């Protein structure tokens, strides 16, 4: 088998890695995969790429080989294919590469987490029990390319045209958005709002009916994991860490000025802004690629490395069906990204919407194997 590195990736990331090609037939668990479902999600990505639709979050441009393949798929019909026909399509058009990061922990393995769309009670006006605002995109926010020399992904444009760093989470909580952004809705508390920020979307249960929060930008500051901070401080063990445990700790330690729960939230300077969709569709939340996400088929990747639409084979043991880890071996499509999703073999798996999906997502912090499928015409460096 050939040892190689995709040239599209090595040029864009500080974490070195190797890419080892394997035969398509050797993909772990291939005999159980529903390639038809994966192809339908891939075809939706192809249609967006072929039409050059702008994504919600700008990422690496698709290679000429991937774009040519997507244009061909977009021109063909139907997008539904049976398992065998879809498997033949991927086998004929892609080469699998196991991505092995050369990172500080020395595992050489991928790292997977899960995410979901929260479903929360909310109001369009503040109430005694729903008083924490979710803000729309500020008018002075300027989104920047992921490789901007400032190291930031967004900045504030001043009245004189200068670009300066946008206020961080603590400054925004202190009123730095006054006159620059309007609240879209109100939720229970800062912990609830923070969870919505981390997940990048939410379905709101309003007195008037349901609505959806769609990602509309961020303040550009780097994401810092407050869950990791609690683990490092010995507040929560790695085995006990989950979204529910994190939210519980914040609420138990207070969310008022000077209290530990709020101080922990402010330790992550990143802040997310949204757009409110009042006409809720039956499809999933919108990911970074600008497309509805599909549970267990859409995943978030490092957008500086892998283009949207890239097929990725995931091989891991995850608690995705039961609390006990079981094999998770399937083809997923890169349709989203996230501030915490950084690295060549880092992925966030979309688990769905609601409490049950959130419980599954919160339990996933596991190592495994990340196998990227590159078009056969893709240039690969030895």
UniProtKB/TrEMBL annotation:
Reaction catalysis annotation: Exolytic cleavage of the (1->4)-beta-glycosidic linkage between N-acetylmuramic acid (MurNAc) and N-acetylglucosamine (GlcNAc) residues in peptidoglycan, from either the reducing or the non-reducing ends of the peptidoglycan chains, with concomitant formation of a 1,6-anhydrobond in the MurNAc residue
EC identifiers of the protein: 4.2.2.n1
Gene3D superfamilies tied to this protein: Barwin-like endoglucanases, RlpA-like domain
Pfam families: 3D, MltA
Positions of the Lytic transglycosylase MltA domain: 119-275
GO BP annotations, alphabetical order: cell wall organization; peptidoglycan catabolic process; peptidoglycan turnover
The keyword Lyase is annotated on this UniProt entry: yes
InterPro entries found in the cross-reference section: 3D_dom (IPR010611), MltA (IPR026044), MltA_B (IPR005300), RlpA-like_sf (IPR036908)
GO CC terms: outer membrane
SMART domains named in the record: MltA
Gene Ontology molecular-function annotations: hydrolase activity, hydrolyzing O-glycosyl compounds; peptidoglycan lytic transglycosylase activity
Enzyme's top EC category: lyase
Keywords annotated in UniProt: Cell wall biogenesis/degradation, Lyase
Protein name: peptidoglycan lytic exotransglycosylase
